[in-house]
């Protein structure tokens, strides 16, 4: 048996699928590593544990969206949130209500 015929050298469908999945996970991790919000306080994007006034919520969401507006991976973040049906928080510069409306528009 030659070195190329050895079972450890053969590429199988399972090996290819695993390599593809790993590449996909690596790509996903890369966009998150480049996110402008990485390391920031998550309450800016998801709200505090206590109740907010309407003005406090609007101001917080505007501040979070400002971070998103300067983010190099905003589109990737938004697509992730849409695909995952993220129910809470600011993702890709959109609130949960804005994302739901976008999904409805895309469906029609």
Q: What does the model show?
A:
This protein is mainly alpha-helical. The chain has one domain. The chain has 5 helices and no strands. The protein has helices at about 15-35, 45, 55-70, 75-85, 95-105. The N and C termini lie far apart (about 60 Å). The model has no long low-confidence stretch (mean pLDDT about 90).
Summarize the main sheet: none
First-residue to last-residue Cα separation: 59 Å
| Global shape | elongated
Radius of gyration: 20 Å
User: What oligomeric state best describes the polypeptide chains here?
Assistant: single chain
Please state the average pLDDT score.
88
The ordered string of helix (H) and strand (E) elements is HHHHH
* Low-confidence regions: none
Q: Provide a count of the helices.
A: 5
The beta-strand count equals 0
Which range does the strand content fall in?
A: under 5%
Q: What is the helical fraction, as a range of percent?
A: 55-70%
- Based on secondary structure, the structural category is mainly alpha
As for the number of domains, it is 1
What's the helix and strand layout?
Layout lengths: L12 H21 L9 H4 L7 H16 L4 H11 L11 H12 L1
Short structural summary:
The chain has about 110 residues and is mainly α.
Features:
108 residues; mainly alpha; 5 helices
């Amino acid at each position: 048996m030659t070195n190329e015929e050895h079972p450890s050298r053969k590429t199988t469908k399972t090996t290819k699928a695993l390599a593809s999945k790993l590449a996909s996970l690596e790509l996903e991790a890369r966009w998150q590593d480049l996110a402008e919000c990485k390391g920031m306080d998550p309450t800016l994007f998801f709200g505090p544990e206590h109740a907010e006034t309407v003005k406090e919520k609007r101001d917080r969401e505007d501040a979070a969206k400002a971070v998103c507006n300067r983010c190099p991976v905003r589109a990737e973040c938004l697509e992730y949130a849409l695909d995952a049906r993220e129910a809470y928080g600011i993702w890709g510069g959109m609130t949960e209500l804005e994302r739901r409306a976008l999904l409805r528009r895309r469906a029609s």
